[in-house]
Amino acid sequence: MEFSHFGALIAFICYISATLAVVLRLFHPKGPHIITILTLGCLAIIAHTLNTVDYLFKQEVVNFSLPNVVSLVSLIITLTVTALALRFKVNLLIPVTYSFAGLWQLMMIFTPQGHGTPAISEDLTVLSHITLALIAYCVLVIATLFSFQVAYINMKLKRKNLAAVHHLPPLMQVETQLFVILFIGTTCLFLSQLTGFIFLENFISKENAHKTVLSIIALVFYFIILWGHYNQGWRGHRVLTLTVIATSLLTLAYFGSRFVKEFLL
């Protein structure tokens, strides 16, 4: 077994074990055992990091094939959520992020690496655009997860089911965090689009037009969400719905065409 495959298997086992450790004790009187969860999570992240680096740098240039990019994105998200778990109660976010990352690591074992799309540039502006776009996507996905958490807590409080939210953070705290994260992600997305328009010659070319248009539409949705919250007091299911739509459009923009090119054509 290759080193990267072995690392992916270890990451899968640790991620799924941590997920089960949360889910099985989610409604326990004492709640999930955070030390066990974070220990498993850290082991998974270490293995995930090592095999992601191996996948990315297996060739002479950085291999930004779709499976590798998704693996990198899931690594950044799980690392962020794990860091948040050190200070805040994110018991609803851990199972979602860990289970996706674990299942994707398992999938990487069976995904051919020969159809990759090597891509790297020494141009600082191009690297800045790519970095901002990657950060924006990861942050906005986390914001989407937070919006689900806000909607869940809000629903349980309206039904006066206090047992279901006993081990979850206060609604106002999570809502505040949601819009801070959403603002940061939207700012990064705006800057990535701005750098693309200014510095990239093929940013609005025919082959990239769909990506640019969908990203801008998603950006408009995020601006509307922020405007609606701070000016009209939007919250709850309206914010959740708009955030899911915006993130779906952004996902389609970033990964839709690459999926078609790398797996269907």
**Subunit organisation of the chains:** single chain
| Rounded radius of gyration (Å) | 19 Å
Indicate the mean pLDDT: 86
Structural class: mainly alpha
Secondary-structure element sequence? Answer: HHHHHHHH
Percent of residues in helices comes to over 70%
Shape: flat
Q: How many domain modules?
A: 2
How many alpha or pi helices? Answer: 8
Query: How is the biggest beta sheet arranged?
Result: none
Terminal-residue CA separation: 29 Å
What amount of the residues lies in strands? Answer: under 5%
Low-confidence stretches: none
- The total of beta strands comes to 0
Layout of secondary structure:
Blueprint lengths: L2 H21 L10 H23 L9 H20 L7 H18 L13 H35 L12 H29 L9 H24 L4 H28 L1
How is this structure best summarized?
The protein has helices at residues 3-23, 34-56, 66-85, 93-110, 124-158, 171-199, 209-232, 237-264.
Q: Would you kindly provide a written description of the structure presented here, covering whatever features stand out?
A:
It contains eight helices and no strands. The chain has helices spanning 3-23, 34-56, 66-85, 93-110, 124-158, 171-199, 209-232, 237-264. Helix 1 packs antiparallel against helix 2, helix 2 (34-56) packs antiparallel against helix 3 and helix 5 runs antiparallel to helix 6 (171-199). The model has no long low-confidence stretch (mean pLDDT 86).
Question: What are the defining features of this structure?
Answer:
265 residues
